[in-house]
Amino acid sequence: MNFNQDHEDILKNINVGKEILYLTRDEVIGLGINENDILDLTKDALVAHGKKEYEMPAKIGVHPFEEVFFHAMPAYVPSKYALGMKWIECYPNNPAKFNLPQTTGLLILNDVSTGCPIAIMDSTWLTAMRTPAVTSLAAVSLHQDAETFGMFGCGVQGTEHIKFIVHTLKKIKKIYVYDVNEKTIDNLIKNVQPKIDVEIVKGKNPEEVAKSCEVLSSATIILRETLSIVKDEWISKGQTILPCDLNTFWDPAITKRADKYIVDSIEEHKLFDGMGYFPDGLPNIKCETGEIIAGIKEGRKSKDELIVCSNIGMSVCDVVVGREIFDRAISNNIGKKLPL
Question: Helices 156-168 and 35-50 sit at what angle, rounded to 10 degrees?
């Protein structure tokens, strides 16, 4: 096997097979990987996925309670020497019941040449970064001239979506945000508005946001039963919808009548369909997000097309970003080396 010399040199700084690097969330954040870095890394991962230059089985998981899930997410991206697995959970009631995040997890990385584990790190920040990066890359690939963007859900994911979208939708003039918790909306605007030049508008209700924006995204809650918060009659031809929460937030009639239904992973969406997350049936899938970004498949053909692009998160993105985190940490002597 021929591996990039830079990656081999980095591995000389850890005793492979005898120790691993442990990185806390603060150490991961402190490495200074910025939004543009994440966009570049995520694009590389999506292009590799679009070109079928990866290995990634569909997520497997366990469900201790009806409303929660744990997912094991392995992947290998040869071009980035990225090999590992994310173990992540989603407990929607954590913030209210325990004052804990809805999502937490760990990422394990392995050395490609020997298979030995080389790192364990927090994956909460990583997940919060790569998810809006995928949305933002899909948005510019499908609707690059958009001047308005709407975000449903103003928690961690919603906040990061607003910070990321301004990097890709260069013509954007207004961003509408909405959440069932008004305080969460206010916190997002307070924290993010000083950091971006685009006006953030506090949406009065879901209907106003849905009718006001060319591009829409949602990062709310993932449930088997569809909530249909956004109604079909609110959505018009020419809009682009980018859900991160499967089939939960949107009226299923929207995806059924869309001119194109695109997904990040066909295999994973079919898996979720089999688990009951699409009670009205999985819409006909046109292609995958990575194929659009890699230029293999055509995105928007006309301004009148209604496009839905569902991105539920892929481990190819996790391991590529994780490998960059590891490389920077080792190069800068960050983290703690633990014996195996």
Answer: 80
The dotted CATH code for 131-314 is 3.40.50.720
Cα distance between residue 233 and residue 207, in whole Å: 10
Instruction: Report pLDDT for 132.
Output: 97
Nearest to 137 by CA among 270, 305, 11, 314: 314
- Break the chain into its structural domains and give their ranges: 17-126+316-335, 131-314
Would the pTM of this model clear 0.90, i.e. be above it?
A: yes
Length of the chain in residues, anyone? 340
- In angstroms, the Cα distances linking 286 to 206, 264, 266, 308 are 27, 11, 10, 10
How would you classify residue 79: left for phi > 0, otherwise alpha for psi between -120 and 50, otherwise beta?
A: alpha
Q: Is pLDDT of 224 > 90?
A: no
- Rg of the Cα trace of the chain? 20
Class of domain 17-126+316-335: alpha beta
Calpha distance 185→205 (Å, rounded): 12
**Phi, psi angles (nearest 5°) of residue 216:** -130, 145
Cα(258)–Cα(300) distance, rounded to whole angstroms? Answer: 12
